[in-house]
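1st attempt posting a full record on here, be nice pls
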Amino acid sequence: MAHRKLAIDGFDEEHKQIAEQMQYMSTKSDSEIMLMVDQKASAVRAAITRGNSTEALERALAEPPYGRGQEAAQSANALLVAEVLMATRTQDVNGVVGGLSEDDRDVLLKYIYHGLAHPTEFNCGVLLSWHERVVEAGGLGSIVRVMADRKIL
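the predicted structure (as C-alpha cells):
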C-alpha cells in the first residue's frame, strides 16, 4: 500500500519547463550577462580590498543570473559570492548578515546550497557557518522560501 497519492516524478518536468520559460524572459544575451558578472566581480573585489564585506556581498548578490543556459555566468557569480564569504572575518559575519535585506539573505542561501551541492569547488565548512548565521537572522522561513522558489541558480 503506497502512502503517496501524488506522482512526485511529474514535478521535475514541470520545474524544468518553468525554468526554461524564465530563461527566455531575460532580454539580455549570454555574453551580456557574462559581461555584467565580470563587471560586478571587479567592483566586488574592490570592496573586499577596502575591507567592506557588506558592500561586497550586496554587490555580489545583486541581479543573480537565473535560468537554464546561464551555467557559465551562474558558476562565475557563485564563485564570486564564495570569495566574499571566505574573505569575511568570522567576527564580522553577524554584522554582514544583519545588514542584508530579506531578499538578499534568501539569494545568499541559494548560493550556499549551490556551494554545498558542489563540495569540490567550495569550502563547505565556511558555507555551513554562514548558513547557520543566515538562518539565525532570517528564521526557518528563509529556508522554506528558497526551497519553494522556482528561480534556479
